[in-house]
Write a sequence for this structure.
């Protein structure tokens, strides 16, 4: 057996035991609806009439479905905005190595419009029905934190701006894809130039749009909470999960007989894994910075958000995120060989999906279940359904055009990317002269 | 244009005939080169030979310095001596010679500290992060940027040490450096200022080590070319017996890679900890969670600004246009644009959350920044940091070296103002209106800061005089000749 694989198997066994332990803690925790800290948090920070979290929520209630739906939506939205970022970055940095997988990112990001835009309407519906956001039916005059931002945080603005921004992001992704497909036919350079110009404006729309969307959808579940880092936090997690998803997807698509077979190689696979590793660290850095600065200042108007997430089994969810979102992939991917070892990377991908879903749950669900994590059958059902819908839409759209940008000016670099001389060859060359 | 004799899976009709037969796979696809207007320029222009590269770079420190070097050195040296004189004046008289006072007890000195530390960021970013990301263009600029990093860290260290006034206490064991002592006096471990001591000293040490390791092959080149005894002795001493053997290169590459891996977290950690100096305080305008990445982006922004400020004249004065090409300038402009945009996002997000959060103190602090007594510094910061990099969306401006140089100066100015805005505007009006004040620097403040540029430039000019300003061996590695697949692979003379 490959020694690297043997080591990684030991690691996997260790993490599996750790995961079992954490799972036992997560689900073994006492679920009490009258938890004193939870109630204190509820009254101090949450303070709205609708959806009082302290009351027992039936798993068949609309509130439960709404929150499960929102969690699943945020997960799938992560994949779409993550792909949009990678497409924009490709054009802005004039990247070469990623040209052969850009059709995949273009296609996934183009699903933001109309599909992800369409899928956000149930969330707006739940909000209007009073199942999600407390501030929807709170009188701003009775709530200072809402009153100051009522220009933005009102039902009408939310209902128009939210789908509008997601649609705009989707239009940027869709247009990039459309121009790339057009370039397949004539190979003209102007399509690349136009794409770069669109990416220049698109990156600003992406930055501010993604921030606004995650503020509206997730942060406003507790509208009193504020953190300048929150948009970056969602961005970091989204790109993280997108990279590992792309890793698996492009590996599948480059198998013998699959469409990327001749244009996607180990070196690009390694690059994706390296980026995944970088974002593992970046996410941890971002989340640590946010937590540390809020903990250190100990201001009640900020700490209530984390205090709620330290109640009951939420504390263990937080611990799982610390270890699972950071330490597990970090320690595993330190080894260069593992980055190309599918026996490890496939479980890492599954793990990363679980961790990102747990991260979204950690953001959404404590509002509904302040006493601790409480999974219902809606959670996996809606998650799988949403991802399946996205997967089916991707598959259908991906097959309507060439599997990679056939005449992209950087495709040549992508297909010869693996031929770059090794460091040993460079050393030998330099020492000769 | 893509071309292949093979067939395409039927479910991708538009790529028919492109991908290749599944039954007879070929190792790679033959794809046409990029259209002419999108072709990448080579990293070394005019197909220069490796011999020419050695001569051009080593010649800078081997030949007599040009005429401009001496007045530049004398001016810089004078500035440096002015700074040391003023520090002596400060130590002998007391910190009262500086303008900091309540409520702005941190002002000019910490602004200068953060400014110089920020400038010191580009070197390690170019050396470590861009190396790990296999960005080959770094090879023409990394050496000068690394040197700049070390000199900037030296300048930065002066301000926090001397702002204590009785500097001998600051340097004594127990105050800044934890050391068992009879009085049982220990530093405050919970203070980010102490973390700064560790972070900056670690950063300085690793940067110096990284710089030195990278220099070893080039020092050996200089040793082998040296004519005088002194040069041969010192270059020989510091090149550690380098012979260019396979084992030496192998060890060198491993050490360089490991140091790059070690340095990369430092790029993030140093300025994150500098940001904690402010962010851990519950002071409006300082306590904001985005500070760590925002400070890191700002540091990279200012570091690249200074790299451009130094390298644009350098390439002209030493005729290094074929090695530090317009492509390098353009790429650095893009880094400025990216980091400037991140900084702009952070400025916007700070303002937005000040409004969104509903804290009247926070909102006041930001309104006061933009429209209070220091409005001029805020708008100088916005103009230089948010507006000026956006000229670089246009290629014509990115390749205009004079324009780029002017903008890089604006970036330097803007980043100094950023630190001034953060520090002074948050402090000069605190919670009690009765204790509000207006900070004005004294002539000693101003001249000490100006003198720190003298120190920086003196060290940089000495670096030009004695060491290769560009990594000779690394540049050779990115020439077409170094690529065994290239038609010129192995060729030695192509002028």
């Amino acid at each position: 057996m490959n020694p690297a694989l043997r080591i990684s198997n030991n690691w996997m066994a260790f993490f599996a035991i750790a995961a079992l332990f954490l799972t036992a803690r997560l689900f073994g925790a006492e679920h009490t609806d009258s938890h004193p800290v939870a109630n204190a948090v509820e009254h101090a920070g949450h303070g709205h009439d609708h959806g009082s979290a302290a009351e027992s929520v039936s798993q068949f209630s609309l509130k439960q479905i709404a929150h499960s739906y929102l969690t699943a939506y945020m997960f799938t939205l992560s994949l779409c905005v993550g792909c949009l970022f990678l497409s924009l970055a490709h054009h802005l940095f004039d990247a070469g190595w990623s040209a052969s997988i850009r059709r995949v990112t273009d296609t996934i990001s183009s699903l933001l419009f109309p599909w992800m835009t369409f899928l956000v309407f149930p969330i707006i519906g739940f909000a209007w029905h009073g199942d999600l956001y407390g501030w929807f039916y709170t009188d701003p005059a009775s709530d200072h934190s809402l009153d100051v931002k009522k220009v933005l945080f009102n039902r009408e603005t939310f209902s128009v701006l939210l789908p509008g921004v997601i649609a705009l992001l989707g239009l940027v992704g869709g247009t990039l894809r459309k121009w790339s497909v057009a370039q397949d036919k004539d190979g003209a350079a102007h399509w690349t130039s136009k794409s770069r110009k669109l990416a220049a404006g698109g990156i600003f729309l992406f930055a501010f749009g993604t921030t606004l969307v995650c503020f509206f959808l997730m942060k406003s579940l507790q509208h009193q909470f504020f953190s300048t880092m929150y948009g970056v936090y969602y961005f970091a997690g989204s790109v993280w999960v997108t990279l590992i998803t792309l890793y698996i997807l492009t590996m599948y698509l480059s198998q013998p007989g699959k469409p990327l077979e001749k244009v996607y190689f180990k070196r690009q696979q390694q690059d994706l894994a390296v980026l995944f590793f970088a974002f593992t660290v970046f996410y941890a850095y971002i989340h640590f910075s946010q937590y540390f600065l809020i903990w250190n200042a100990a201001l009640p108007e900020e700490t209530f958000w984390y205090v709620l997430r330290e109640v009951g089994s939420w504390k263990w969810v937080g611990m799982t995120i610390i270890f699972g979102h950071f330490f597990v992939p970090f320690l595993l991917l330190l080894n260069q060989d593992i980055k190309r070892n599918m026996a490890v990377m496939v479980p890492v991908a599954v793990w990363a999906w679980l961790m990102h879903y747990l991260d979204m749950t950690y953001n959404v669900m404590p509002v509904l279940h302040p006493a601790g994590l409480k999974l219902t059958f809606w959670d996996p059902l809606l998650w799988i359904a949403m991802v399946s819908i996205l997967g089916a839409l991707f598959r259908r759209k991906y097959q309507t055009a060439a599997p990679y940008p056939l005449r992209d000016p950087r495709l040549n670099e992508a297909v010869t990317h693996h031929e770059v001389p090794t460091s040993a060859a460079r050393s030998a060359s330099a020492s000769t002269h | 244009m893509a071309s292949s004799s093979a067939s395409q899976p039927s479910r991708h009709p538009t790529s028919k005939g492109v991908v290749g037969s599944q039954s007879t796979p070929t190792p790679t696809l033959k794809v046409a080169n990029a259209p002419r207007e999108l072709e990448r320029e080579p990293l070394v222009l005019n197909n220069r030979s490796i011999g020419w590269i050695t001569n051009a770079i080593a010649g800078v420190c081997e030949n007599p310095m040009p005429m401009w070097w001496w007045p530049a050195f004398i001016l810089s040296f004078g500035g440096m001596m002015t700074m040391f004189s003023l520090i002596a004046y400060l130590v002998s008289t007391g910190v009262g010679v500086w303008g900091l006072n309540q409520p702005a007890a941190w002002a000019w000195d910490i602004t200068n500290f953060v400014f110089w530390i920020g400038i010191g960021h580009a070197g390690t970013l170019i050396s470590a992060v861009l190396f790990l990301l296999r960005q080959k263009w770094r090879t023409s600029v990394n050496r000068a940027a690394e040197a700049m990093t070390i000199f900037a860290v030296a300048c930065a260290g002066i301000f926090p040490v001397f702002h204590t006034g009785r500097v001998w206490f600051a340097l004594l064991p127990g105050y800044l450096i934890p050391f068992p002592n009879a009085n049982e006096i220990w530093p405050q471990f919970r203070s980010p200022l102490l973390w700064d001591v560790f972070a900056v000293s670690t950063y300085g040490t690793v940067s110096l080590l990284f710089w030195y390791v990278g220099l070893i092959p080039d020092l050996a080149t200089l040793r082998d070319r040296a004519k005088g005894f002194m040069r041969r002795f010192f270059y020989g001493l510091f090149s550690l017996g380098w012979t260019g053997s396979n084992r030496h290169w192998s060890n060198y590459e491993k050490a360089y890679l490991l140091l790059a891996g070690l340095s990369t977290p430092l790029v993030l950690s140093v300025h994150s900890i500098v940001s904690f100096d402010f962010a851990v305080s519950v002071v409006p305008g300082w306590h904001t969670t985005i500070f760590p990445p925002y400070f890191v982006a700002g540091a990279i922004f200012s570091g690249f600004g200074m790299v451009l400020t130094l390298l644009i004249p350098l390439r002209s004065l030493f005729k290094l246009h074929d090695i530090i090409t317009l492509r390098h300038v353009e790429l650095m402009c893009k880094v400025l644009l990216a980091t400037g945009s991140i900084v702009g996002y952070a400025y916007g997000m700070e303002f937005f959350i000040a409004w969104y959060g509903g804290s009247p103190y926070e909102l006041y602090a930001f309104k006061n920044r933009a429209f209070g007594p220091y409005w001029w510094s805020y708008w100088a910061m916005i103009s230089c940091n948010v507006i000026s990099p956006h000229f670089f969306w246009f290629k014509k401006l990115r390749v205009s070296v004079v324009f780029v140089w002017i903008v890089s100066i604006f970036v330097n100015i803007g980043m100094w103002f950023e630190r001034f805005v953060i520090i002074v505007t948050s402090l000069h009006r605190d919670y009690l209106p009765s204790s509000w004040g207006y900070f004005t620097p004294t002539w000693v403040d101003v001249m000490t800061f100006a003198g720190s540029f003298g120190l920086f430039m003196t060290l940089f000019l000495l670096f030009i005089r004695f060491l290769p300003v560009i990594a000779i061996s690394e540049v050779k590695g990115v020439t077409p000749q170094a690529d065994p697949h290239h038609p010129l692979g192995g060729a030695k003379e192509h002028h």
